[in-house]
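Supplementary Methods. Inverse-folding protocol.

Structures were first reduced to a C-alpha coordinate string of length 196. This string, shown here, constituted the complete conditioning input.
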Protein backbone atom coordinates (compact mmCIF):
# COMPACT_ATOMS: atom_id res chain seq x y z
CA UNK A 1 0.00 0.00 0.00
CA UNK A 2 1.28 3.45 -0.94
CA UNK A 3 2.32 5.72 1.95
CA UNK A 4 1.68 9.45 2.00
CA UNK A 5 3.23 11.98 4.33
CA UNK A 6 1.80 15.39 5.22
CA UNK A 7 5.06 17.00 4.07
CA UNK A 8 4.77 15.51 0.58
CA UNK A 9 1.14 16.52 0.35
CA UNK A 10 1.71 20.09 1.43
CA UNK A 11 4.52 20.64 -1.07
CA UNK A 12 2.05 21.14 -3.93
CA UNK A 13 -1.14 21.77 -1.92
CA UNK A 14 -2.82 18.76 -3.49
CA UNK A 15 -2.30 15.03 -2.94
CA UNK A 16 -1.75 12.52 -5.65
CA UNK A 17 -4.85 11.56 -7.59
CA UNK A 18 -6.10 8.02 -7.02
CA UNK A 19 -6.19 6.16 -10.35
CA UNK A 20 -9.07 3.74 -9.84
CA UNK A 21 -8.61 1.48 -12.86
CA UNK A 22 -7.27 -1.89 -11.79
CA UNK A 23 -7.96 -1.33 -8.10
CA UNK A 24 -10.64 -2.97 -6.00
CA UNK A 25 -13.27 -0.90 -4.24
CA UNK A 26 -11.72 -1.83 -0.91
CA UNK A 27 -8.28 -0.59 -2.01
CA UNK A 28 -9.70 2.70 -3.29
CA UNK A 29 -11.72 3.33 -0.12
CA UNK A 30 -8.67 2.62 2.07
CA UNK A 31 -6.45 5.04 0.12
CA UNK A 32 -9.18 7.71 0.03
CA UNK A 33 -9.71 7.36 3.76
CA UNK A 34 -6.03 8.05 4.47
CA UNK A 35 -6.10 11.20 2.35
CA UNK A 36 -9.41 12.34 3.80
CA UNK A 37 -8.11 11.96 7.36
CA UNK A 38 -5.27 14.32 6.41
CA UNK A 39 -7.93 16.92 5.44
CA UNK A 40 -6.95 16.63 1.79
CA UNK A 41 -9.37 16.89 -1.12
CA UNK A 42 -9.71 13.47 -2.74
CA UNK A 43 -10.00 12.79 -6.46
CA UNK A 44 -10.49 9.25 -7.72
CA UNK A 45 -10.38 8.83 -11.49
CA UNK A 46 -11.24 6.03 -13.92
CA UNK A 47 -13.77 4.43 -11.66
CA UNK A 48 -16.82 2.32 -12.37
CA UNK A 49 -20.20 2.15 -10.62
CA UNK A 50 -19.06 -0.31 -7.94
CA UNK A 51 -16.21 1.99 -6.91
CA UNK A 52 -18.58 4.97 -6.76
CA UNK A 53 -21.09 3.07 -4.59
CA UNK A 54 -18.36 2.04 -2.12
CA UNK A 55 -16.99 5.58 -1.88
CA UNK A 56 -20.46 7.12 -1.42
CA UNK A 57 -21.23 4.57 1.28
CA UNK A 58 -18.05 5.44 3.20
CA UNK A 59 -18.00 9.24 2.66
CA UNK A 60 -21.15 11.36 2.87
CA UNK A 61 -19.25 14.16 1.04
CA UNK A 62 -18.46 11.94 -1.97
CA UNK A 63 -19.75 13.26 -5.28
CA UNK A 64 -19.92 10.89 -8.24
CA UNK A 65 -19.27 12.47 -11.64
CA UNK A 66 -20.46 9.64 -13.92
CA UNK A 67 -19.59 11.23 -17.27
CA UNK A 68 -16.06 12.01 -16.03
CA UNK A 69 -15.77 8.56 -14.40
CA UNK A 70 -14.56 10.31 -11.21
CA UNK A 71 -15.47 10.75 -7.57
CA UNK A 72 -14.50 13.83 -5.57
CA UNK A 73 -14.51 14.09 -1.78
CA UNK A 74 -13.96 17.40 -0.01
CA UNK A 75 -14.42 18.53 3.57
CA UNK A 76 -13.91 22.12 2.48
CA UNK A 77 -13.31 23.14 -1.15
CA UNK A 78 -10.02 24.82 -1.95
CA UNK A 79 -10.25 28.59 -2.53
CA UNK A 80 -10.81 29.38 -6.19
CA UNK A 81 -7.99 31.03 -8.11
CA UNK A 82 -8.58 34.10 -10.26
CA UNK A 83 -9.79 33.64 -13.82
CA UNK A 84 -10.89 30.37 -15.34
CA UNK A 85 -9.82 27.37 -17.38
CA UNK A 86 -11.82 26.67 -20.53
CA UNK A 87 -12.31 22.97 -21.21
CA UNK A 88 -13.28 22.65 -24.86
CA UNK A 89 -14.31 19.50 -26.66
CA UNK A 90 -15.06 18.75 -30.29
CA UNK A 91 -18.00 16.39 -29.91
CA UNK A 92 -20.10 14.19 -27.67
CA UNK A 93 -17.69 11.25 -27.80
CA UNK A 94 -15.02 13.50 -26.24
CA UNK A 95 -17.16 14.38 -23.20
CA UNK A 96 -15.75 11.77 -20.77
CA UNK A 97 -12.18 13.01 -21.23
CA UNK A 98 -13.26 16.68 -21.21
CA UNK A 99 -15.30 16.19 -18.03
CA UNK A 100 -12.41 14.39 -16.34
CA UNK A 101 -10.21 17.43 -17.11
CA UNK A 102 -12.90 19.83 -15.86
CA UNK A 103 -13.55 17.96 -12.60
CA UNK A 104 -9.79 17.70 -11.97
CA UNK A 105 -9.30 21.43 -12.50
CA UNK A 106 -12.27 22.28 -10.25
CA UNK A 107 -11.21 20.17 -7.28
CA UNK A 108 -7.73 21.72 -7.55
CA UNK A 109 -9.21 25.17 -6.95
CA UNK A 110 -9.92 26.45 -10.44
CA UNK A 111 -13.06 27.87 -11.99
CA UNK A 112 -13.97 26.05 -15.19
CA UNK A 113 -16.03 27.01 -18.22
CA UNK A 114 -17.15 24.07 -20.34
CA UNK A 115 -17.47 24.57 -24.08
CA UNK A 116 -18.86 21.50 -25.87
CA UNK A 117 -19.57 20.52 -29.47
CA UNK A 118 -17.26 23.03 -31.13
CA UNK A 119 -15.29 20.78 -33.46
CA UNK A 120 -13.83 22.33 -36.57
CA UNK A 121 -16.36 20.52 -38.77
CA UNK A 122 -18.75 23.19 -37.47
CA UNK A 123 -16.28 26.06 -37.25
CA UNK A 124 -19.11 28.59 -36.79
CA UNK A 125 -19.88 27.05 -33.35
CA UNK A 126 -16.27 27.55 -32.27
CA UNK A 127 -16.12 31.11 -33.60
CA UNK A 128 -19.31 31.96 -31.71
CA UNK A 129 -17.48 31.19 -28.41
CA UNK A 130 -14.31 33.17 -29.15
CA UNK A 131 -15.09 36.04 -26.78
CA UNK A 132 -15.23 33.62 -23.85
CA UNK A 133 -12.17 31.67 -24.99
CA UNK A 134 -10.04 34.81 -25.38
CA UNK A 135 -10.54 35.58 -21.67
CA UNK A 136 -9.55 32.13 -20.34
CA UNK A 137 -6.31 31.74 -18.41
CA UNK A 138 -5.66 28.53 -20.32
CA UNK A 139 -7.63 26.29 -22.68
CA UNK A 140 -7.73 22.49 -22.52
CA UNK A 141 -8.82 21.20 -25.93
CA UNK A 142 -10.06 17.61 -26.13
CA UNK A 143 -10.50 16.05 -29.54
CA UNK A 144 -10.46 12.47 -30.71
CA UNK A 145 -11.45 11.84 -34.28
CA UNK A 146 -11.34 15.53 -35.02
CA UNK A 147 -7.80 16.15 -33.85
CA UNK A 148 -7.59 19.54 -35.56
CA UNK A 149 -9.36 21.41 -32.76
CA UNK A 150 -6.27 22.19 -30.62
CA UNK A 151 -4.32 23.49 -33.64
CA UNK A 152 -7.19 25.65 -34.84
CA UNK A 153 -7.72 27.04 -31.35
CA UNK A 154 -4.01 27.81 -30.93
CA UNK A 155 -4.15 29.84 -34.12
CA UNK A 156 -7.21 31.81 -32.99
CA UNK A 157 -6.47 32.69 -29.36
CA UNK A 158 -3.67 34.41 -27.51
CA UNK A 159 -3.91 31.96 -24.60
CA UNK A 160 -2.02 28.74 -23.86
CA UNK A 161 -3.75 25.70 -25.39
CA UNK A 162 -3.22 22.24 -23.93
CA UNK A 163 -4.13 19.50 -26.41
CA UNK A 164 -5.63 16.36 -24.91
CA UNK A 165 -6.33 13.41 -27.17
CA UNK A 166 -9.37 11.29 -26.47
CA UNK A 167 -7.71 7.99 -25.66
CA UNK A 168 -10.73 5.95 -26.72
CA UNK A 169 -10.27 7.13 -30.28
CA UNK A 170 -6.49 6.75 -30.12
CA UNK A 171 -6.63 3.18 -28.86
CA UNK A 172 -9.35 2.20 -31.32
CA UNK A 173 -7.10 3.50 -34.10
CA UNK A 174 -4.05 1.66 -32.79
CA UNK A 175 -6.00 -1.59 -32.49
CA UNK A 176 -6.37 -1.70 -36.21
CA UNK A 177 -3.27 -3.63 -37.37
CA UNK A 178 -2.54 -1.70 -40.58
CA UNK A 179 -2.92 1.67 -38.92
CA UNK A 180 -0.88 0.55 -35.94
CA UNK A 181 1.90 -0.65 -38.25
CA UNK A 182 1.81 2.66 -40.13
CA UNK A 183 2.01 4.65 -36.88
CA UNK A 184 4.98 2.59 -35.68
CA UNK A 185 6.72 2.97 -39.05
CA UNK A 186 6.19 6.75 -39.02
CA UNK A 187 7.47 6.99 -35.46
CA UNK A 188 10.59 4.99 -36.34
CA UNK A 189 11.24 7.21 -39.35
CA UNK A 190 10.95 10.33 -37.20
CA UNK A 191 13.29 8.88 -34.59
CA UNK A 192 15.78 7.88 -37.29
CA UNK A 193 15.78 11.48 -38.54
CA UNK A 194 16.46 12.69 -35.00
CA UNK A 195 12.98 14.19 -34.51
CA UNK A 196 11.44 13.89 -31.05
Amino acid sequence: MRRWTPIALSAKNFPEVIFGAGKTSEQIVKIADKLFKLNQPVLVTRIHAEHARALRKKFKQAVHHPVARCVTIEKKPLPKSAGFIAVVCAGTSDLPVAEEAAVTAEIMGNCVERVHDVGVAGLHRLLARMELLQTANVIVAVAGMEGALPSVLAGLVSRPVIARADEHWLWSELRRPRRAARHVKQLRQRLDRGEH
